[in-house]
Amino acid sequence: MSLQSWGMYPLVENETLEFQSEAELSKELHDADELIAYGNGRSYGDSALNETLVYTKPYNYFLDFDVAEGLLHIQAGVLLSEILEGVVKHGWFLKVTPGTKLITVGGAIASDIHGKNHHVEGCFSECVEEFTLMLANGTVQTVKKGEELFLATCGGMGLTGVILTAKIRLKKINSQYINQTTIKTKNLKETFAAFEEYSSLPYSVAWIDCLAKDENIGKCLLMVGEFADDGDLRYKPKSKLNIPFNFPSFALNTLSVKAFNWLYYKKSPAGVSHQRVHFDSFFYPLDSIRNWNRIYGKNGFTQYQFILPKESSFDGLQRILDKISKSGKGSFLAVLKLYGKENENYLSFPIEGYSLALDFKIEEGLFELLDALDEIVVECGGRIYLTKDVRMSQETFESGYEKIELFRKFRKENSMSEKFNSLQSKRLGL
Ligand SMILES: Cc1cc2nc3c(=O)[nH]c(=O)nc-3n(C[C@H](O)[C@H](O)[C@H](O)COP(=O)(O)OP(=O)(O)OC[C@H]3O[C@@H](n4cnc5c(N)ncnc54)[C@H](O)[C@@H]3O)c2cc1C
Is the domain of 124 the same as that of 234? Predict the structure, then answer.
């Protein structure tokens, strides 16, 4: 079996190793020249790809759950969806969750993922008390907050070792519903003002119409919300629709994206509206369609996600959205989020500011467009998210991540750079 990333690009042949015990994994590490951990393949690019992969998803037992304290001890292959099935009924939820619950705990730590509440709760590593990691020499180390191995592994894209287990703190809830407010804006100025106005609420995310032009650039639907307080915790996940095959690549073009954007924006009432929605549709709208990545066709797609410091966010986004709109290369998914303070980890993505994520199908001219967008990101002092990336240059990467030399030095000193590598780490010299 060859595993691939969510973007289905690049497609590479790989050998997949599985393990049931630490001893088995230790032997596999000893025998292999070079490898990288693979969780559930929800990263978009080449961070979990190489010729040899350690498939960690089957390593997925629940080890302990302190229901009174909300402290969970699990193996790294457990999916966030499996955690929710076990804990919501007891009034607990994930402190930090991304836009899909179909990722492993190991993947959440390695990418130090963030959610719609970064400005309040920070990254996933903030809720990790400790984890165990198999190092390059096959020994297992317990890693605690504040240690250098913690700083290098959270956000370190699997390049320090294989995460085996983790203890994570959960968040108390008293409902499976979210009280959602939707704010419809007409341009980027209104969008920024709305984000700031509602920033005391824990969750916020905006869908931007990236093909809007001129004075409408940056128009959006901003969704903000918080958990309701009605005591309803009877959670039962719904079954999913499936996309059974790859769509032909012409199915997704400027016209279909324009039509989608027009309808999506129009169906929401003007101004401010209120709804009560289930947490599954608030946090994970795309999970309701299995294999939705196939709509981009067999050549695959990529997600371009960058973040800009607050002071340069408005101008930078205006310039980037203008360039995308003029290029005609549309994206159904264009998601803008607000971020709080940067953490200490060497390669975690968030800095205080705004981030935009856009999906593009792989086609002629795309990488030239993204190179041009990189220039603006670099000029604005921003950076690109490793877990989404498949093509940025080493120069662009280095200009965004100022702690990279600490990371490289640490990897080298601990013989990690000889054993743990992905296509991405080799491309970027991580
Ligand atoms: C629809 C969708 C929405 C998303 N929304 C968000 C979002 O809102 N915020 C966000 O931050 N991300 C988001 N992501 C990205 C996703 O959360 C990350 O890519 C996550 O790391 C994927 O986890 P995975 O288990 O699938 O890992 P993989 O994709 O298999 O691997 C990702 C990285 O983690 C490493 N890794 C995996 N398991 C281990 C392990 N046990 N030990 C060491 N390293 C390991 C891999 O080597 C690789 O570098 C989204 C992805 C999708 C598809």
Answer: no
- Scanning the structure block, which residue is given the tokens 């390059």? 136
Residue 59 falls within a domain, yes or no?
Answer: yes
- For 252-291, write each residue's pLDDT tens digit: 677 677 777 777 777 788 899 999 999 999 999 989 888 8
What range defines the domain where residue 201 resides? 177-400
What is the DSSP pairing of strand 15-17 with strand 52-55?
parallel
Same domain, 184 and 101: no
For the domain that residue 212 is a member of, what is the CATH number?
A: 3.30.70.2520
Shared-domain flag, residues 158 and 209 = no
Residues 324 and 417 in one domain: no
Q: What is the pLDDT of residue 92?
A: 98
Residue with tokens 């198999």: 134
Give the pLDDT confidence of 322-363 residue by residue, as tens digits: 999 899 887 777 999 999 999 999 999 999 999 999 999 999
Among 42, 109, 425, say which to mutate for ligand 1: greatest number of ligand atoms within 8 Å of CB.
Answer: 42
CA 59 to ligand 1: nearest atom: 41
Give the domain CATH number at 97: 3.30.465.10
Query: 26 in a domain, yes or no?
Result: no
Asked if pLDDT for residue 226 goes beyond 90, the answer is yes
Instruction: Please give the distance, rounded to the nearest whole angstrom, from the Cα atom of residue 111 to the centre of ligand 1.
Output: 6
- Identify whether residues 181 and 110 lie together within a single domain: no
Q: Which residues pair with 221 in a beta bridge?
A: 184, 207
- State the Cα torsion 374-283-64-113 to the nearest 10°: 10
Ligand 1: lining residues by beta carbon, under 6 Å: 6, 36-43, 47-48, 56, 76, 98-100, 103-104, 106-107, 110-111, 113-115, 157-158, 162-163, 286, 387, 422
CA distance 164 to 202: 30
Could you identify the atom of ligand 1 that is nearest to the CA of residue 335? 8
Domains contained in the chain, number: 2
62 in a domain, yes or no? yes
Taking CA atoms only, the protein residue closest to ligand 1 atom 37 is: 107
